[in-house]
Structure formats: C-alpha cells, structure tokens
Amino acid sequence: MKNTLLILLLFISTQVFSQKLTKIESQLIDLIDKNFEETVALLEKTVNINSGTLNLMGVREVGRVFEREFAKIGFQTEWITLPDSLKRAGHFVATRKGTKGKKLFFIGHLDTVFEKDMPFYPFTMVNDSTAKGQGVNDMKGGNVMIFATLKALDQMGLLKDRTITVYFPGDEENAGDPSWVSRAEFVERAKQHDYALGYETAQGFNIATVARRGASGWTLKTTGKQVHSSGVFRESVGYGAIYEASRILNQFREELAGEQYLTFNPGQFIGGSDISYNPDTGEGEALGKTNIVAREAFVTGDLRFLGEPQKEAAREKMKQIVTQNLNGTTAEIKFQDGIPSMPPTPGNYALVEILSKVSVDMGFGAIEAGDPGSRGAGDISYVADYLDCIDGLGASGTGAHSPAETINMKQYPDLLKRSVVFVNRLMDL
User: Fold this and answer.
1) How far is CA 141 from CA 44, 71, 115, 208, in A?
2) Cα(338)–Cα(382) distance, rounded to whole angstroms?
3) How far apart are CA 110 and CA 107, in angstroms?
4) Are the C-beta atoms of 304 and 225 separated by less than 8 Å?
5) Digit-coded pLDDT (tens) for 113-146
6) Who contacts 36 (Cβ-Cβ below 8 Å, separation ≥6)?
7) What is the pLDDT of residue 5?
8) pTM > 0.85
C-alpha cells in the first residue's frame, strides 16, 4: 500500500518541464523521482525518533541517522559539543571542501517542540497528499530535503571539488542560554561561505523568505506597599504592584502598538503579597488575598523586531514608560537578547530572483519574496550580517508546533526537484 501511494505521488507531481532546463538538470530531476521512496523512508525514520530539544539522547539519535546518510555520499561528519551549562545536545555538521564554484551553507535543525513526556505522534500517511507526525515539516521535512538534494547532486558527480557545509543545530526550538554561546561555532562556519540556504518550512509553494524578525525577552518587576486593601489609592499607600504593572503594560500597548514589524507580548503575569518564579521551567506562584494591596508583581514577555535599530528604539521607549511610576510603587525592566533579525537585503532578493527563474523554467511559476514581517526568528538570522541568505526552502504543510502538524506530500516531490536545480545553478554562479 505504501509503495502504491508513493508511485501515485510521483505521478501526481509529474510536470511537463520547460525546454529551458539543461540535460543535467533533467537528469537531476529524474534522480529525485528515482530516490523518492528512500527519501520518504528517511523522513519517516527521523520523524519517529522523538527529538524534543530537552531530549538530548533523542536529538543525538537523529544526528546519528544523518551522520550515516551523509557519510554515504562523501561528506565528513562531526558532532559539535556545547558546554554542560547550556544543557543542550549539540549540533550535527557535514562538510565537503573544494576550490570550485560558490560555497554553500545549508541550515536545518534536529530538534522539535515535542518533548519526550508529551504524547507521541508518529509519521502517518493521512491520504495520498498529506502525512502527519512530530516535526514532519518543522523541520525534519526540510532536513531530508537538504540530504536528498545533495544526494542527487553527488550521484551526478556534481559535488566534486565543491565546498558545502550542512549544519543542523540541536536546539533551534529552545536555544541554550546564552544563545550566542550555542551559535558561536555556527556563525564562524557560515562566514566561510558565499550563501546561506535555510530549509525551514515553506510559507507557500511560490513564496521565499528574505527576512525574519528577531526575538528577545524582557522581564518586568514592580513593587508596592502591602497594606489592607481599604487603603488603596490613598496618598500614604499608593496603588500597589499589580496596578503599576498593569499601567506599564497598557502604556506599552498605547504607545508602541501598530509600529510595522514590532510586537511585544506579556506571556506571564504573577502578582500578590509574595511571588516566586523559576526561569528554567517558567513556573510561578503567587500568595495573596483580595483584601491586601499587592506587594510584588512579575511579568515575562517577548519583543520581536526587524533590525537592531528598531529593537533598541523599542527598548528605550519601554524603559521610559517604566520610570513613570504610580504613587507608592517602583518598577524595573530587564531585557535579554535572543535571536537577531534577518533584514531584507538586495543580496537576499537576488537569491529569490535566481530561485524564481528556476521555478519558471520548470513550469512552476514565479516566486515572490514574502512579507519581511511575516516570519519569526530562526537560526539563519545569526549569520544574516555576514552573507546573502534565503529561507523557507523546506517542506510545506500546516499546524507546525501542534499535534496536527502535517506535510504536503503532493508538493514535496516538486519542492525537491526545484531545490536540486536551484542548488546546481547556485554553485556555478
């Protein structure tokens, strides 16, 4: 039954490709078809290994699967270990080195949001065009696309004397703190290349990603005078910690909401006479009664932005708002750097033009750059200041980060074919 479904998928995906393709490109496309059953088997194998970020053994097991596969096609493989303090599994890297053509840096990630103690959702074919499973499109579908692309190129002898690096971090979904320690080696490797290609989930069959917003965190702590609630608002008492935190959050909304590409969201709010918060687990507790003016309040949130100037301007405005205290209260805000943004650059748009030409030549239609504000933070953003980047080259699907996560198996073969032609052309620019 499985083989029948695969044959049907290949039949559905068959296109009458334009005569603008070279003989080699047509042969690469044929290889994608020939290898497709093995490609899907690899996808199923990796999806069926739980690799939630905090499941260090599971993340490493997925890495070992790719280690074996990349070794078969002539790549040198290694495992990048991280300091124990980060509590993360590490990163998988596969490399080939040469002197010919452009140097390409492929980005995926081994981990998913589905931790080991969560319900398990294996790879399952729902129908002839849809499969589901943990991380099937975010981003094990993309990881397998990278491998299948390079496998076909290797089978044609097109990777000889080429410089290719494949980098699969093990903690993209929840990077170790500080994240720059986890990404230091990643960035240094990327700097040695000409282009970074991210295979995160495709936003649409004819959309490519030229920008991603950055993500950082913030915490707000307020204090007030703990007295009987009947005295609230009096000059000698003031407003209490919860009113002050609420004032600040509302002023954030009034003065900063609506700015293009900028969002800021309070994710947790804890307040009362006594509070506790565990930053490692995100668990918090508050003690108090309705007849007590709150002595403490604590809020955690995130800040998303496009470009460092926007981030810094927003932080300065937030700091100013925090200093405008209500009577009888104090407030302090702290910011934590996270993932930087990937600004849209002329070089990124140029990569989209190359991909679009490939797509048109294959009869798939033109590709447009997606809205710069439509995608959140990703690993490619760490290297965006050093080389031209394009993302969203991976699998298409729905429900990422949820039990309903799916991959579009009807589009998957065509995305693979477009990927292999794109990479082949890119190497020879």
Assistant:
1) 9, 20, 18, 16
2) 10
3) 10
4) no
5) 999 999 999 999 999 999 999 999 999 999 999 9
6) 6, 9, 10, 413, 416
7) 52
8) yes
Q: Cβ neighbours of residue 308 under 8 Å, at least 6 residues apart? A: 214, 340, 341
**Pairing of the two strands 124-127 and 130-132:** antiparallel
Decide if 165 contacts 93 (C-beta within 8 A): yes
The span from the CA of 93 to the CA of 76, in Å, is 8
Q: Buried b vs exposed e over 150-164: b needs ≥16 C-beta within 10 Å? A: bbbbbeeebbeebbb
Two structure tokens written together for 298:
């604590």
Report d(CA 413, CA 317) in Å as an integer: 48
Owner of token pair 């088997």: 41
Q: Report d(CA 60, CA 170) in Å as an integer.
A: 8
| Tokens standing for residue 14 | 């068959």
DSSP per residue, 370-408: PPTTSS---GGGGGTTTSEEEB--S--EE-TTSTT-EEE
Q: With contact defined as beta carbons under 8 Å apart, do 382 and 183 qualify?
A: yes
pLDDT score of 14 more than 50: no
Residues 21 and 30: beta-carbon distance below 8 Å:
no
3-class SS of residue 276 = strand
Q: Which class for 17: exposed (0-12), middle (13-18), buried (19 or more C-beta within 10 A)?
A: middle
| Structure-block tokens of residue 217 | 């965190």
Surface-to-core class of residue 135, CB atoms within 10 Å of its CB (0-12 exposed, 13-18 middle, 19+ buried)? buried
Dihedral sign for Cα 243, 247, 249, 253, please.
positive
pLDDT digits (tens, 9 = 90+) for 344-397: 999 999 999 999 999 999 999 999 999 998 888 899 999 999 999 999 999 999
Of the candidates 219, 267, 272, which has an alpha carbon nearest to the alpha carbon of residue 242? 272
Strand (E) or helix (H) holding 360: helix 346-361
